[in-house]
Amino acid sequence: MAKPPLRILLASPRGFCAGVDRAIQIVEVALRKYGAPVYVRHEIVHNRTVVEDLQEQGAIFVDELDQVPQGAPVVFSAHGVPKAVPADAKERKLIAVDATCPLVSKVHREAERHWQAGREVVLIGHAGHPEVIGTLGQLPEGAIHLIEDVGDAETFVPRDAGRLAYSTQTTLSVEETVQIVAVLRRRFPQIAGPHREDICYATTNRQQAVKQIAPQCDAMVVLGAPNSSNSVRLVEVAKTSGCANAVLVQRAREMDWSKLEALRTVGITAGASAPERIVQEVIDAFAERYDVKIEEVVTTTEDIRFRLPRVLEDA
To answer: Which pLDDT value is given to residue 195?
Structure first.
């Protein structure tokens, strides 16, 4: 029998951002420089496929530094870490390599600058996310107040309304963050903000690409991990942009085809931690069931690259 036709709208940009690409390179270059094993504190990025690939090359992922032998190389994840972590690594004589995304490091520096200027810092983000834990850990306990939603922004009571500043997690929904900031600015007109927006270019670009194609789609497939903030946000953006049938999957084998029947147009994108080969894997899975026609929808072109840490430059 002939396969039913299916139009696939492929969002671009999608997948790896410069920070993720740099973090993965850091582990691979560290393995070449120091030899296996190289230890990595937490997932280097939120993607199981990436983690498994690096494990095959000799990386060992650990929860805490006490699992790393003294003197061994250890990489800190792209999400950033509290200041206590590199201090602990130095005390234990570990070879520490910091893979924190430079855009996350920028948020850390902003928070420190505001605090040094005597301001109470408000961080817009999701409790428990590694990036938020890392940012909170840049300053003494209580120096940063976490705000997760508009409700928090409406009820927040600062110590001094005239000495406030805000920063944001880099992987939030652009629209939701704008709403929270609007509430803070209405309630505290003197609040200081970042010189440039904290939400990273890749998060913004991937959300914009989804907004472009979602209204045309019967379903949207987002490739990414459930603990990946930017991937989860892409599902939310797809739904609010007109595609109610938006799903998050990590691999093609996880697809629930009962939710993907009688399609005429499907959108596909990938979170900033998802490899392009998984996108192709999903396209191939659709091609087994449909006569597919692929249209890549390009909303912007990315050419940002980040340098590796100096400790690895000679490798």
So the answer is: 73
